[in-house]
UniProtKB/TrEMBL annotation:
<dbReference type="GO" id="GO:0043240">
    <property type="term" value="C:Fanconi anaemia nuclear complex"/>
</dbReference>
<dbReference type="GO" id="GO:0036297">
    <property type="term" value="P:interstrand cross-link repair"/>
</dbReference>
<feature type="domain" description="Fanconi Anaemia group E protein C-terminal">
    <location>
        <begin position="7"/>
        <end position="190"/>
    </location>
</feature>
<dbReference type="Pfam" id="PF11510">
    <property type="entry name" value="FA_FANCE"/>
</dbReference>
<protein>
    <submittedName>
        <fullName>FANCE protein</fullName>
    </submittedName>
</protein>
<dbReference type="InterPro" id="IPR039685">
    <property type="entry name" value="FANCE"/>
</dbReference>
<dbReference type="InterPro" id="IPR021025">
    <property type="entry name" value="Fanconi_anaemia_gr_E_prot_C"/>
</dbReference>
Length: 191
């Protein structure tokens, strides 16, 4: 894939031909291992297309915790290509309406265990671009649990968003935990 000069439609066509979006999960793990071994690394665009083709449909359709095969494939792909993964998959999951309990748990686990610090900041900025909901509060909590140093402008936006959203979450325990976490982790920067 890296040595072939494939353009985006060709790569999408190849993914469709190989039926990557519906392939059995054990094959998905082997395919991701093969992708990670490629040299040179995939381009950003190729990794984004593959993240969408390999994982988006599977993650959006979760109604129970992901299988160990799917989790292994997600974490291995995410460990090397976390930025395109976040741009494609995390952004869509965060914007999906509804409860999405399994998707929320998965996003929390990926934030806590797999994403690079710059990708954790990307997830935070993606969350702050959409209206806050109960579904997003645990993901925000996971982001803060990483205790990454946030750029001042991102921290300011987080605090502003939490202040503006306070009336909507007046009875939310998750919101109260989140505000406490922000005040604890960033007490010197928050006035």
């Amino acid at each position: 894939l890296t040595s072939l000069p494939l353009c985006h439609p060709q790569l999408e066509g190849l993914c469709s031909f190989l039926q990557l979006s519906t392939c059995p999960e054990p094959f998905l793990v082997r395919f991701c291992s093969w992708l990670l071994a490629l040299t040179p690394d995939l381009s950003y665009t190729s990794a984004a297309i593959l993240a969408e083709q390999l994982f988006l449909r599977r993650v959006l359709s979760l109604t129970q915790p992901p299988s160990r095969h799917l989790m292994a494939a997600l974490t291995s792909f995410c460990s090397k290509y976390s930025h395109p993964f976040c741009q494609v998959l995390v952004a869509v999951v965060l914007q999906e309406p509804g409860e999405g309990a399994e998707q929320t748990k998965l996003m929390c686990e990926l934030v806590e265990e797999c994403l690079e610090p710059h990708s954790v900041q990307l997830v935070l900025s993606q969350i702050l671009e959409v209206p806050l909901s109960e579904k997003l509060l645990p993901v925000l909590q996971a982001v803060l649990g990483r205790q990454e140093v946030l750029p001042p402008e991102l921290l300011d936006l987080l605090v502003l968003t939490l202040c503006q959203q306070a009336p909507a979450f007046a009875t939310s325990l998750n919101y109260a935990k989140l505000v406490t976490a922000v005040l604890t982790a960033y007490q010197s920067q928050v006035s």
